[in-house]
Design brief:
alpha/beta; Rossmann fold; 2 domains; five-stranded parallel beta sheet; 15 helices; 13 strands; 14% strand; globular
Length: 427
């Protein structure tokens, strides 16, 4: 067993669901740790990224479901028919199976409905990074009651900026300085040069244009900027041409399938007292370090000690780039925790922007937890005004409300709203 393994929240899901669920597909971007996590439970492994194993299984598909269970099919999307072969084996009572994939497919998802459970694996959440021991848990907030909040955390602003830049990919984050930057650059180059053509089958005619579009998307982190503005922001770094709508749509679809883009959908509930809500998603890359590297920014820029590099794509936003990346890191973490309690994470914004809440965690029973993110150590009445507005409109349907901060201590305000250092929140 790997003594350096970082225990993940999804480990608890896998331990709980296997072997009751006969097949689980663990999906997420490359280098997120899917294979290592799955191999800790597998007795038989088929590595489809190994050309020799892939050729053998292409010649004899029956071998895919043979061996001692649990059977791991790693990078299943590389073998046409692998998903359906596992689905049929499950129908015949075989398993359990673990599948891992770095690219999604709507057709594959549909064919496995009711047989193969899909679990998303994202880069390391803050609670998984060992910064401090969580004392506030999303499952407790979901239970309601708005109990007392306690706990202190030594992480301050510079520590959170370091986490933004360090990456949530387990092996990459072990590096520092130039090796870290080169590894991130290599990851981005692989997306453009290999993953998009190989995994998604889309020929990249102008790699520089795709890279420029990705950088512009990174500049739009935590905004709902329309895609025309993103394409226009990318133009100066892609040869001066604005990508046509069809090409930009292809990029967007493919990068989402590869789990590189991880947009946060808008909350548009069907039964509530809220009206005139926007349906636009907020933009987000799967990992904040990739966004920062695409934009060429480091700690001095994010901490306000240096100016942003020239030529960086410009997208209009409220607040700072550092604040947007901190929000993205918080959203990534809460999504990991919400999956553990079968919750879904959205954002809320009225059409004219008068009211907005960074995260709405919708629970299975229809209640919600509302979360704001502030890259600040203290919280005042102005910071919670949208949470109080939502509280007035949802009443008992609001299980809890809190602000995630860079401050030192967790507590509950007199108005009932919680204040929690981001690294103190756990699943």
């Amino acid at each position: 067993m790997d003594t350096h393994y970082i225990y993940r929240v999804v480990d608890d899901d896998l331990d709980e669901l296997l072997p009751s669920i006969r097949a689980i597909s663990l999906e997420g971007p490359k280098a997120v740790g899917k294979t290592l996590t799955a191999k800790r439970r597998a007795k038989t492994t088929h590595r489809l990224d190994d050309p020799a194993q892939l050729a053998l299984l292409e010649a004899d598909m029956e071998r895919l479901t043979e061996g001692a269970p649990p059977i791991l099919v790693d990078e299943y999307q590389r073998l046409n028919g692998a998903w359906d072969r596992v689905r049929r084996a499950v129908d015949d009572g075989a398993g359990p199976f673990l599948l891992t994939g770095s690219a999604s497919s709507d057709q594959q998802r549909h064919s496995g409905a009711g047989r193969i459970l899909i679990l998303r694996m994202r880069p390391l959440a803050l609670s998984e990074r060992g910064l401090c021991t969580p004392t506030v848990f999303l499952r407790d907030l979901a239970a309601g009651g708005k109990g007392r909040l306690d706990g202190r955390c030594p992480v301050r602003l510079d520590g959170y900026v370091d986490e933004i830049l360090r990456s949530g990919f387990p092996e990459i984050r072990r590096l520092n300085g130039r090796p870290l930057n080169l590894q991130l650059d290599g990851y981005l180059e692989r997306i453009v040069d290999r993953d998009v053509p190989d995994e998604a089958g889309l020929k990249v005619r102008r790699p520089a244009a795709l890279r420029a579009w990705l950088a512009a998307y990174a500049a739009a982190t935590a905004t709902s900027a329309d895609y025309k503005k993103i394409a226009e922001a990318a133009a100066p770094n892609s040869g001066g041409d604005v990508l046509d709508r069809k090409t930009a749509q292809h990029y967007r679809d493919v990068l989402t399938r590869l789990w590189i883009l991880d947009p946060l959908e808008a909350w548009v509930p069907t039964r509530n007292r809220l009206t005139r809500l926007t349906a636009s998603s907020r933009h987000q890359l799967t990992d904040t370090a990739l966004a920062a590297r695409l934009l060429g920014v480091g700690a001095p820029v994010l901490l306000g000690r240096a100016t942003q590099p020239g030529g960086m794509p410009v997208i209009a936003r409220d607040g700072t780039l550092a604040g947007a990346l901190f929000e993205s890191l918080a959203v990534q973490s809460v999504r990991v925790y919400a999956q553990r309690i079968d919750g879904r994470v959205f954002h809320l914004r009225t059409r004219n922007g008068e009211r907005e809440v960074d995260m709405i965690v919708e629970l299975p029973d229809g209640r919600v937890i509302a979360i704001e993110v502030k890259m600040a150590q203290t919280v005042d009445g102005h910071d919670v005004r949208h949470l109080r507005w939502l509280q007035d409109r949802l009443g008992d349907r609001l299980a809890d409300a809190l602000v995630m901060t860079t401050g030192p201590e967790a507590y509950r305000r007199q108005d009932g709203i919680g204040v929690v250092p981001a690294a103190l929140l756990g699943p």
